[in-house]
Amino acid sequence: MATDVFGALANPVRRALLAALLDGPRPVNDLAGLFDLSRPAVSEHLQLLRQAGLVREEPRGRQRWYHLDAAPLAEVGDWLHPFEHYWRDRLRALSDLLDEERP
């Protein structure tokens, strides 16, 4: 069963795991050390991220390394795009109003 990207991103631990992988692949033990959670709990979060297609797992000997796969985040970007326009227009209108108020 595939996990929804938005559902995967709803949890702050999963967002922090993705941020931790921005600089490159990391072993699961390294990732688990970033949190005040058990290794199995972190592994569950990583499994949900893998089901959403946001990370991939690579066995290296006895360790599992995780890699970021940001491609599914394009769906989030597409969804956010109209909101960016909304806020950009609102901020531009506020800036124009403030410019009119200045002497």
UniProtKB/TrEMBL annotation:
This is Metalloregulator ArsR/SmtB family transcription factor. Residues 1-91 form the HTH arsR-type domain. Keywords: DNA-binding, Transcription, Transcription regulation. The keyword Disulfide bond does not apply. The keyword Transcription regulation applies. SMART domains: HTH_ARSR.
